[in-house]
Specification:
Blueprint (H helix, E strand, L loop, with lengths): L2 H13 L2 H8 L3 H15 L4 E4 L2 E4 L1 H28 L5 E6 L1 H6 L2 H10 L4 E6 L2 H7 L5 E5 L11 E16 L3 H5 L8 H4 L3 E3 L4 H12 L8 E3 L1 H10 L5 E4 H5 L5 E5 L6 E10 L6 H10 L7
Parallel strand pairs: 3-4, 3-5, 7-8
Antiparallel strand pairs: 1-2, 5-11, 6-9, 6-10, 6-11
Length: 299
């Protein structure tokens, strides 16, 4: 017994005719009869009797027809699901991202994706870069900050450079650094003012710590806040100076200003995508990566 025999039986049972079923399937009548005989032999009891040019199901055949019809409906649903997948109009796209990227970089792409493919669900998971790497087997695509050890990635994933931003100093508009340092501030200011540090695992914090370490500047961690929103709120409250990506700072707060750190070049911030290898990418992943390529051509 195989699904093809059961589906043929479902059609015959619906049409009550072997010849009409053969016409519908575009095959010969003997082929349909052969499928029914194999099915009947497998069941071990008569499934139908001939009644002139039509057939009449036996009680066993009527019982089997219910299950055969369910199989046929399931197959139709599978075919419809596959068609919708091919149109990227169903299913789930699971995105992992750091909090900063998820808050300030990705929303425009997620909104665009759901506008183009309204039947697609987008699920977001946030964490620091290391957490996103560890969760990649459960995700379709990830967005992380800074360098990632390739040995930490699952074998079927690759690190794709995405876009570059800058980490800037965040101060109140009335702070002396805002008033006197239009062109930027040296790294030494971190040793002179109270610093509002991001949480451990933050890519922005790692960049600041590495820059300070290269110049031999030691800065204590007295205040630690979570996320860009925490930095902004604490700076606004006058608790100290902070740092954030330039794009995050642009997301509207007239009381705060940004200043380049270590001019003239500043502290650059590389954002990367973790994506499956080409042959493992779903249509939804491919479509989302194409949208993200508007930011920078992926390699």
């Amino acid at each position: 017994m195989n699904p093809s025999q059961i589906l043929t039986f479902a059609l015959v049972g619906q049409l009550k005719s072997i010849s009409r079923a053969a016409e519908f399937l575009h095959i010969g009548q003997p082929a349909v009869s052969g499928q029914l005989k194999l099915l009947q032999d497998a069941v071990g009891e008569p499934l139908y009797v001939r009644d002139g040019h039509r057939i009449r199901l036996t009680p066993v055949g009527e019982g089997l027809l219910e299950h055969a019809e369910q199989l046929r409906r399931n197959l139709l649903q599978i075919e419809e699901y596959v068609h919708r997948l091919q149109r990227i109009n169903c299913g789930i796209l699971r995105i992992g991202s750091t909090v900063t990227i998820g808050s300030y970089y990705l929303p425009q792409y997620v909104v665009r994706m759901q506008t183009l493919y309204p039947g697609l669900e987008v699920h977001m998971k946030t964490g620091d870069s290391r957490e996103i790497v560890q969760c990649m087997p459960e995700l379709d695509v990830g967005f992380v900050e800074g360098a990632i050890d390739p040995d930490e990635l699952p074998a079927s994933y690759r690190l794709l450079p995405w876009c570059e931003d800058e980490i800037v100093l965040v101060v109140r508009e009335d702070h002396e650094l805002a008033l006197t340092c239009d062109r930027g501030v040296p790294l030494e200011v971190f040793a002179k003012y109270q610093v509002l540090w991001r949480e451990r695992g933050s890519g922005a914090r790692a960049i600041i710590e590495n820059a300070l370490s290269r110049q031999g500047i030691e800065v204590p961690v007295n205040i630690q806040v979570t996320g860009v929103a925490g930095v902004k709120a604490s700076v606004r409250a006058g608790l100290g100076i902070g740092f954030a990506s330039a794009r995050a700072l642009k997301e509207g707060d007239s009381e705060l200003v940004g200043r380049r750190i270590d001019p003239p070049h500043g502290l650059r911030w590389q954002l990367n995508i973790l994506a499956p290898i080409e042959k493992m990418r779903s249509r939804a992943v491919k479509a989302f990566l194409e949208l993200c390529a508007d930011e920078k051509l992926l390699v």
